[in-house]
Amino acid sequence: MSDEITDSPTDWVSKHLRKYVESNGAEGHLYYGRPTLLLTTVGRRSGLRRRTPLIYGRDGDSYVVVASNGGADDHPLWYHNVLALPRVEVQVQAEVFTAVARTATTGEKPALWEQMVGIHGEYAGYQRKTARDIPVVILTRA
């Protein structure tokens, strides 16, 4: 595995990532008023480190993110990666740490989903747009 990180080629995403990384989280942490973290996963096939900005909530000491993929019928690639390799790197503002990612259980999900919809209301619309059950992922410091 390389130390190099691959960021999204999508223009607005790469601009957000660059701003976040270059300012050590001082800029980009709040993205349109929503808190974001940077999640770095290892590609399950490529072995490349891939970084994704995600809106987050909190559950105690853990961070909570949603694998919405904008309501697409497929899970986002980062979610497939954490299913295969749950050890991830997380950056929240200037703090960078290793975490373990896991999908919220059916018992945990309803409350976490409501919390995340409260932070980013578009998640509810994304769920209506797709037949897949959009996963909620819990990131716990390793």
Describe the secondary-structure layout.
Layout: E1 5-7, H1 11-22, E2 30-31, E3 34-42, E4 49-55, E5 57-59, E6 62-66, H2 77-84, E7 87-92, E8 95-103, H3 109-119, H4 122-129, E9 136-141
Parallel strand pairs: 1-4
Antiparallel strand pairs: 2-3, 3-4, 3-7, 5-6, 6-9, 7-8, 8-9
Structure report:
By secondary structure, the chain is of the alpha+beta class. It contains 4 helices and 9 strands; from the N terminus they run E-H-E-E-E-E-E-H-E-E-H-H-E. Strands 1, 2, 3, 4, 5, 6, 7, 8 and 9 form a 9-stranded mixed β-sheet that branches. Strand 5 and strand 6 form a beta hairpin. It is globular, with a radius of gyration of 14 Å.
Number of strands: 9
Could you name the ranges where pLDDT drops below 50 across 5 or more consecutive residues? none
- The number of helical elements comes to 4
Structural class: alpha+beta
**Sheet having the most strands:** 9 strands, mixed
**What integer value in Å does the Rg equal?**
14 Å
Percent of sequence in beta strands: 35-45%
Q: Helix fraction?
A: 25-40%
The average pLDDT score comes to 95
Gap between N and C termini: 19 Å
Which series of helices and strands comes N to C?
EHEEEEEHEEHHE
Q: How would the global form be characterised?
A: globular
Question: What structural keywords apply?
Answer:
alpha+beta; nine-stranded mixed β-sheet; single chain; 142 residues
